[in-house]
Amino acid sequence: MTTLKLSITDLSIEDRPREKLERHGAEALTTAELLAILIGSGNSEENAVQLMQRVLHDAQDSLAELEAKSIKELCAYKGFGPAKAITIQAACELAKRRMKEQHNPNQTRYTNSDLIYQFFLSSMKGKTVEECRLLLLSQSLGFKGCKLLSRGGLTGTTVDVRLALKEALLAGATCIALCHNHPSGNPKPSLEDDRLTQKLKEAARIMDIKLIDHIILTDHTYFSYANEGKL
């Protein structure tokens, strides 16, 4: 099946991404149209919008999946060179930083699992390997810091409970929340996750530190040990 290429100039003014943005604002554009503005041109068979529609389709129409693509993977598309691939990666990184700006940790009291999930999501969304991080909190659940404890593979990462407690003590934290991601997209905890949670909870209790939650994070949902009554 052959797809007819229409150059951007063949489109009506209303359908040209740049003109459409100028007339109606960025929110009126599709994701593919916004990305087409960034890359500027397509290839001999597709205009920029058609090319980005195909790239997004291969990424399950997910910006997180698009961000996870390497420069080499993006350059495999006809019409994509390093400059376009780097532009896309830079745009994805800007989106992540904007997300972090909206969530100022120093002005938040982490009183529920959703707030904890949103905090970690801003930096862990789209990760393709497991990471484990520790949120360090005051007695009133104010922000005192966040530490990366470990980074592993696709199916697991090893966490040193002693390191977690050391970080809590150094920060003067009296409450902590653990979080690790499941790149598979399934937030269901494993038996090893259960064992780690109980081990950290008991070790922290001895040090007068309270584990308030352990979040298993995916890009679209999460599992909370506190919400499930497993702490």
Shape: elongated
Distance between the termini: 56 Å
Beta-sheet strand percentage? 5-15%
Assigned CATH architecture of the largest domain = 3-Layer(aba) Sandwich
| Sheet with most strands: strand arrangement | 2-1-3-4-5
**How many distinct domains?**
2
Rounded to an integer in angstroms, the radius of gyration calculated over CA atoms is: 22 Å
**Strand runs, count:** 5
State the order of secondary-structure elements, H for helix, E for strand: HHHHHHHEEHEHEE
CATH topology of the largest domain, by name, is Cytidine Deaminase, domain 2
Tell me about the largest β-sheet.
5 strands, mixed
Task: Show unreliable segments.
Answer: none
Quickly count the helices.
Answer: 9
Q: Which homologous superfamily in CATH is the superfamily of the largest domain?
A: Cytidine Deaminase, domain 2
Overall pLDDT score: 89
* CATH class categorisation of the largest domain: Alpha Beta
Helix content: 40-55%
Which class do the helix and strand fractions yield?
alpha+beta
Q: Would you kindly provide a brief summary of this structure?
A:
The protein has 231 residues and is of the alpha+beta class. It is built from 9 helices and 5 strands; from the N terminus they run αααααααββαβαββ.
